[in-house]
Amino acid sequence: RDLIGEKMLAVERKNRILSILQEEKKVVVGELAELFDVSEETIRRDLEKLEAEGLVVKAYGGAVLNENLQSDMPLAVRKRTNVIGKQKIAELVASRITDNMSVMLDCSSTALFIARRIKDRKNLTIITNSLEILIELKDAKNLKIFSSGGLLGEDSFALVGNQADRMISEFHVNASIISCKGFDIDKGFTDSHDMHASTKRVMLENCDTRVLAVDSSKFNHIAFNVVGTLSDIDVIVTDVKPPKEWAERFEKAKVECLYPADAEEAAN
Asked: Is 217 in contact with 73 (CB distance < 8 Å)?
């Protein structure tokens, strides 16, 4: 087996381990070795690399997910997390995006779901720092797509850094739609990487309507870098009806909150 093939298999195995951790919160070395048909020593090396990246914490005989992540989960993993919730959010956001609008989309997995829902719009202009979104929309002939340019982020399909921020700041759009790694009612919305946080802030500064699209798995979590607070957004789109305390804070801050009709029914 050639070296490139081995590296690709190792990356896929790492992503599958992270997906299992997202679902089950812990993994066992012996079970993973059997699942992937590799030695336990290979799995231990995988877990050591994941621990070095800040994604997991090794435990006796296995590992658990790092609940205080300061690193980005690979997009391949994030796309499989709370898929139903993100689809509901994408549907709500798409209902507000009409033909002839201009929008900015960040590099989040939620933004990727939104991009898929608005491919059929006409004369829509999209500016994004997500390579994944650029690929998703490459055949959409009725859209005008701008890439931010910039530095390719480590272990991500995102373009970040000063060049990306400068390009984005040269535009002004109808709506900027971003997501986050954590959303706390007091601390605001946060990200695990300073360059990602910077690009999201620039997007929010250059639009008419500032939209935070965040699924319920991010509630009551705080990541390392603050992107903004309630005063920095106009609309929150989520997949659940927020708790009463949160709804009151949204209303006080004059922030509109959208969530699916079935979330309202489930809460009653």
From this structure: no
SS3 state of residue 227: strand
Contact between 130 and 148 (Cβ < 8 Å): no
Integer Cα distance of 190 and 141 in angstroms = 34
Structure token digits, residue 190? 């946060």
**Secondary structure (3-state) at 243:** coil
In DSSP terms, 199 is beta-bridged to none
The CA–CA distances, whole Å, from 140 to 28, 93, 105, 116, 137 equal 44, 19, 16, 10, 5
What are the pLDDT digits (tens) for 72-120? Answer: 555 555 555 557 888 899 999 999 999 999 999 999 989 999 999 999 9
List the one residue out of 18, 31, 23 whose CA is nearest residue 57: 18
**Pairing mode, if any, of strands 173-178 and 102-105?**
parallel
Which phi and psi (to 5°) does residue 209 adopt? -125, 125
The torsion defined by the Cα of 75, 81, 82 and 83, in degrees rounded to 10, comes to 60
- Average pLDDT, integer, range 54-61: 81
CB-CB contact of 89 with 237 (8 Å): yes
Task: Give the distance from CA 28 to its chain's centroid.
Answer: 27
pTM metric for this prediction: 0.73
What is the residue-wise DSSP string for 99-167?
A: TT-EEEE-SSHHHHHHHHHTTT-SSEEEEESBHHHHHHTTT-TTEEEEE---EEPTTSSBEESHHHHHH
Q: Among 69, 68, 86, 15, which residue's Cα sits nearest to residue 46?
A: 15
Helical packing angle, 40-52 and 3-24, nearest 10°: 70
3-class SS at 197?
helix
Helix (H) or strand (E) segment spanning residue 26: strand 26-28
